[in-house]
């Protein structure tokens, strides 16, 4: 049996984190905020209206566009004229230097900001964000963002358009892969971890990039899961579910925000004054700046909210959008709009001031080329250290869905393995969507599952391969070969799922079953009777009911990035004991969507599945998801016992201390994510049947026990009352502690009293 070293992974994470900070952290160009304020004021006084509009204007280069390019002129000339404040989609110190040099030829020599979608890694790809969310491991998530920032900053970039903190409960929406899943509490923790990872010891350090919390707001609730679609949402749901991760990102220091493509209750987010001026810059006191999404200012014409670009610019600026990404509405119209009195000069100065402040904080006025050191770029980008970090995070992101008869972990002494499926040798697909394109290396660099197995097992294990079928094709011509290969082997490992472009932006799907004939291939292989492990790779929760019901061992690996194959092999052979938990519910059928764990009880709740008459139920499906939020197995097992509450009652000024004992009752060292849920039984506004309020990831040796403590204070008991005030109400609470939202192991109650 493989030996899993107790301290190995946590020590590795610590060392890697230290490596990042020690090796790459540089003294920041410390600027006191009052000095920066003065400098910004002085600079604003020198600027013409056209130059101010220039600072609010962002262009994309022609590379890697993720939307229509509006700029038909010569970007470099426009930069020299002071008409551009930021460039996106230019990578590498050499190219970035060219644009920055142009900015240095403008009248006021205001440096450019360089933005990029560094979503899950820069050069070395990490697991997609939804996969990392499955780790429930804030240090791992921080390390991923830290490594990405370190690489990106070394390559000249000073701003990433991440983290995406949109909650989504709709796996039809392709961008679900880019977020942290369905839950506002988990989503908030992850939002903060990512911001801290990207911004490190603070922007201005040479290993930090500005984070951008996006997409403000409610983009993840696009009607019917169709990307860019309208959002219609109650104020309550907005505040309870969709806004908390944004607030957490802001509290963690996010330097910038991006608004979004969707309308919210009839008003496009980009032109939404309530969201941007009242909530973000008003109530929350955000001091950074807001960038539009790609062309989203101009798109307000299509929304039917404004007539032309002039009106679009007026609406967006008035609403609090500071920078125009690839839309040209600001640069073409703002100077005239100010001169004619349609837009106030004060608003322009505020927006420009916010952007200049960040340029000062980044140290770009001290040295516009400080992120353009080719030597540093060569040393840091694509380093073995980045790859090691990626592998470490990748294995933590894998979720073990099923392990009957303890098929896993596999023995390294196995003589022959059949590796079957359209993704068994896939490489680019391992990176998933939002991986930056590096040309030929996308096809050659990521470690495939097959290669990972070869690396792990060496030559003494025979690896046989058959593709079986394509990812999304209907031909079964390869089935016979695959079945024969399976029959010849001791164990079969299958790799199925989605190719890299099946989830992501503009990748919504109405059918989220395993694509093509892949599930038929699973049936054919299962019929051989060979021990079978299925690995499912993809960017969203897929539906695979037959596989789930019949295959004894299933790992959901998502898209794991550059080191995917090695990370999967680590888990398959027990060099890492899987510890992931689902951050989003997996439906049984598309008709259940949205299905999520924190639903309301209703007046006719389904209590007994055998009695659905006039109950809130489906005639043709259970209410429950196939795999629940928080679910994920380990090679070991854990018992929960000895629940104690410090008191049966608390007031809102007191803290309830909850303790219990967690014991590793299995054979392997392992990590368990213990989850605390609460239910407010009766309130002036009905509360969900369960809400995640805390969690901890605990590592235990076989037979080891630990006493775990949770603290419950008034904030965890609060909700928005009928007047939308964040408050507590006296009453009884159910306390539930468990291994998943549907696997509660310990229960109690307590009362909140006056
Ligand atoms: C996406 C953003 C992204 C931007 C720049 C847009 O299409 O919605 O999330 O940051 O493009 O690439």
Task: Tell me about this structure.
This protein has 754 residues and is α/β, with parallel strands linked by helices. It is 31% helix and 18% strand. It has a six-stranded mixed beta sheet, sandwiched between helices. Strand 15 (532-537), helix 23 and strand 16 form a beta-alpha-beta unit. The longest helix is centred in the N-terminal third of the chain and has 17 residues, at 8-24. It starts with 7 loop residues before the first helix and ends with a strand. The structure holds beta-D-glucopyranose (BGC). The site of beta-D-glucopyranose has 8 residues, from loops.
What descriptive keywords fit this protein?
26 strands, six-stranded mixed beta sheet, 754 residues, single chain, disordered N terminus, binds beta-D-glucopyranose
